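Protocol step 6 of 9: fold each sequence in the batch and record its structure tokens directly after the sequence line. For illustration, a two-sequence batch is reproduced in full.

Sequence one:
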Amino acid sequence: MIFTILLFFIALNAQQDCEDYGQTTCSGKMHQQQQCYWKAQSGECIGATPGDVDHICGEFGAEHTCNTDSRCSWEEGKCQQCGDTNIGCRTVASTVASTVASTVASTVASTVASSVASSVASTVASSVASTVASTNSATTLAMKCENHYTETDCAALGYCIWDHNDCETDDSKQCEMFQSAATCQSNSHCIWKMESGGSTGECEDNFADNGEGVEQDCEMLSQ
């Protein structure tokens, strides 16, 4: 009798529609071969094709969280697939390139003697390293679940859940669970790393090697 009741509840849960989930339980759930996504703009849980970038971006409810995913851009008050916006797609690399170009132009303009060339090269290299480190550190801090202190900011990341006043990575979104490069890369917080030989690989946190022990500046904290 108990076994029958248990099977009934398991079957009932398996049939739960995406729209039955709330903000903190929606992302990552599956229903009839569809993945559930939290639509931040309308505040509802909807079903769509797994790995759909439009819906992944739609889960971000704030500009600062939207910009943590290189596939997304913030425009018209919502997070959208970057290719569909006037802003276009932005990456850490493009930001660094722009900063380097500006630094080089300023330095070269004020340098007229060839004897200063080595000094210019040293200054540019130092500026590039500092910019890359600062940009990567800020992006890493913003992507890590534990660095978000409100339920709204936590849920906006899509791969985090709010649990007892703490923002934690959703067990169903742990990178090591994804067994293929395509599934791994469809999650912004994961990266597929090929093993020696290039025939196999594994899915790891995109920020696993960064940001450890980094103290947050005040401006990085949410309200």
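Sequence two, same batch, same settings:
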Amino acid sequence: MGNRGIERMTGRVVLRDLEDAEGTRYLEARVKGDGALIIEGQDLGNGVRKVFGEEIGEYEWSYIIKKENITLVIKALGGKEGDDILELITDRCTGEDAQDLEAIIRSNKIPHEFLNRMTE
């Protein structure tokens, strides 16, 4: 099916929304009321089973970056203080490039909390 569209809403951007024979892959970024950046993803289907084994068909994950560390993300994305974080993420990390966001966070050692969950 391909990418079903990149959408920009107030405070939230959909970076990846794919569906194909391997399943679905979804990733979004949003800014919470307290200023924290939340990056949430969900993969479902055969692609997940290929990575984690037949018994696992769903993988969800979240990165939480506190407001005081947003400037680090902005700079890592090539922006400057005061730039719109969601706009920068949309410009650099949508569609097939969505996976780059995790690498940017980790390679720049940006403080974050990481949560994940796997189910059938």
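Proceed to step 7 once all outputs are recorded. Observation for sequence two: Residues 40 and 62 are 4 Å apart (CA to CA).
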